[in-house]
Write a structure and sequence with these properties.
Layout: H1 8-43, H2 47-76, E1 90-93, E2 96-99, E3 109-111, E4 116-118, E5 123-125, E6 130-132, E7 137-139, E8 144-146, H3 151-185, H4 190-222, H5 245-253, H6 267-272
Antiparallel strand pairs: 1-2, 3-4, 5-6, 7-8
Helix pairs in contact: 1-2, 1-3, 1-4, 2-3, 3-4
InterPro entries: Palmitoyltrfase_DHHC (IPR001594), PFA4/ZDH16/20/ERF2-like (IPR039859)
Family: Belongs to the DHHC palmitoyltransferase family.
Membrane topology: Multi-pass membrane protein
């Protein structure tokens, strides 16, 4: 009995997560913009406070646009699957594989579930029911695998979500402190108080959890390692894909600095950096592939 077949059902349930994300954005938008800082901007005569409200609203919308752009790009970008034409001279014995031809990438793998060749750093996802190029993990938040072709977009989604939620926590904190006095005096409507508390608590929870997640992925990025490959690295042996922090960063974000903070790649990077396609990866020259 293959229990992993049940995992494919998680992909269907995952689409409700998209609605959850949209709901979270809507609650935060109502609490920060509609309920708190927009009234200050249009009703307050104090120039400094109005300027602060204008700045907060502008930054909020900028981060929101970048968050949603990165999020939906990560959701709808295929992380990469093994192409049909990907074949080498191979000798397959049972579930093991020996490569007859090599291009410096070492022995190729073989997936007994897909019954197909696996390029280097490729792993089978039990939820997607396919092999994913440079698979990091299957993320329920984007209802997709995180792999070679959408890892950058996923990291940007984490970054902009962290910055957005951190901004929400900071700008809602004064109102949250006043919440208890307003509740006692009944000076605010129940809906306003509920949205404020809900938005503040949710954003604070996301800030703390995202901080841990970002630190973990920065560590992986700096060594050119995926979440799956952490378990493959042995002892003190230097990871063969670790090219140094700068090159490791470029293997994911590209070399064009103007595109680093945008959820897209330049044509030159897509053409020249083979790792972005997920089929071939440069290795350290001082380590045998």
């Amino acid at each position: 009995m293959n229990l992993f077949r049940f995992c494919s059902g998680l992909k269907v349930l995952g689409y409700f997560v998209i609605l959850l994300v949209i709901t979270f954005v809507a609650v935060s938008y109502y609490a920060v913009v509609v309920n708190t800082w927009w009234p200050i901007l249009i009703e307050n005569n104090h120039k400094a406070l109005s300027a602060l409200a204008c700045l907060i609203i502008l930054v909020f919308h900028f981060l929101l646009i970048m968050l949603l752009w990165s999020y939906f790009t990560a959701v709808f970008t295929d992380p990469g699957s093994v192409p049909e034409h990907f074949r080498r001279e191979l000798v397959v014995v049972g579930d093991s594989l020996e490569a007859g031809a090599s291009t410096g990438q070492g022995a190729l793998g073989y997936c007994p579930k897909c019954r197909n060749v696996k390029p280097p750093r490729c792993h089978h996802c039990s939820i997607c029911q396919r092999c994913v190029l440079k698979m990091d993990h299957h993320c329920v938040w984007i209802v997709n695998c995180v792999g070679a072709r959408n890892y950058k977009f996923f990291l940007l989604f984490l970054l902009y979500t962290f910055l957005e939620t951190l901004l929400d926590v900071v700008v809602l904190l004064p109102s949250f402190i006043e919440f208890f006095s307003q509740a006692i005096k009944h000076s605010s409507s129940p809906s306003q108080l509920a949205s404020l508390v809900l938005a503040f608590v949710l954003n604070l929870a996301f800030v703390l959890s995202l901080l841990c997640f970002i630190v973990m992925h920065l560590s992986l990025l700096s060594t050119n390692t995926t979440s799956v490959e952490v378990h493959e690295k042995s002892g003190d042996v230097r990871w063969k894909y670790d090219l140094g922090k700068k090159k490791n960063f470029e293997q994911v974000f590209g070399k064009k600095k103007a595109f680093w903070l945008l959820p897209l790649y330049s044509k030159d990077d897509l053409h020249n950096i083979t790792s972005l396609q997920g089929l071939e990866f440069p290795t350290r020259s001082d380590i045998d592939p």
